[in-house]
Amino acid sequence: MKIKVCGMKESSNIIEVVNLGIDYVGFIFYEKSPRFVQDDFSFPKDFTLQTKKVGVFVNHSLQIIVEKIIKYRLDLVQLHGNETADFCHHLKMKLASLDSFMPQVEIIKVFSIGESFDFKQLEAYKPYINYFLFDTKGTNLGGNGVAFDWNILKNYKHEVPFFLSGGIDVQHVPEIKHLSSLPIHAVDINSRFEVSAGFKDVEKIKKFKQSLL
């Protein structure tokens, strides 16, 4: 099972996390987030190609998303707002036009889950995205530090792989392993592994990674 560490912005901290062999690192381009990546941000020169870069967007325009993809050579786009299936369709077509000078960029569509969730609404998105991401419905758009009831995932009948997110901590590893029959592509960790907003506890992430093996 792969691991995504989301909400990073400090160069030295990024390299420490990447050196753990983490599969995905997420960078948030949403200005209202305490983990917002400023315009003058640049990736450390030692950033390994083995770790994929995920850009997190919230109701951004196609133009801005494409600009960030090109500027930062993003591997994946994570849509964390109210983006429609039609928007995802247009984004997919736009990304296809970049194939001539950039590798294929994949799309993750986020859905926030509360006490109940209708998985039928995902059907319209399936032709246009590569992964879903299920997060906890809360006050903030991600980084709430609270897990949703994973029993709801038993109702997930789609073949599209997904990222599991929302308040995940080291203590959740046994529960995550019990979900192995589901098409979980990766677990997405964030606020529970922070010293401060955007600065991660490298040793705790290392412990989590080892426990998940």
UniProtKB/TrEMBL annotation:
It is an enzyme of class 5 (isomerase). Residues 4-210 form the N-(5'phosphoribosyl) anthranilate isomerase (PRAI) domain. It catalyses: N-(5-phospho-beta-D-ribosyl)anthranilate = 1-(2-carboxyphenylamino)-1-deoxy-D-ribulose 5-phosphate. Gene3D superfamilies: Aldolase class I. SUPFAM superfamilies: Ribulose-phoshate binding barrel. Pathway: Amino-acid biosynthesis; L-tryptophan biosynthesis; L-tryptophan from chorismate: step 3/5. GO terms for biological process: L-tryptophan biosynthetic process. Keywords: Amino-acid biosynthesis, Aromatic amino acid biosynthesis, Isomerase, Tryptophan biosynthesis. It holds the Pfam family PRAI. One of its GO terms (molecular function) is phosphoribosylanthranilate isomerase activity. Its EC number is 5.3.1.24. The keyword Isomerase applies. InterPro entries: Aldolase_TIM, PRAI_dom, RibuloseP-bd_barrel, TrpF_fam. Belongs to the TrpF family. This is N-(5'-phosphoribosyl)anthranilate isomerase. It comes from Thermoflexibacter ruber. The lineage of its organism: Bacteria, Pseudomonadati, Bacteroidota, Cytophagia, Cytophagales. The gene is trpF.
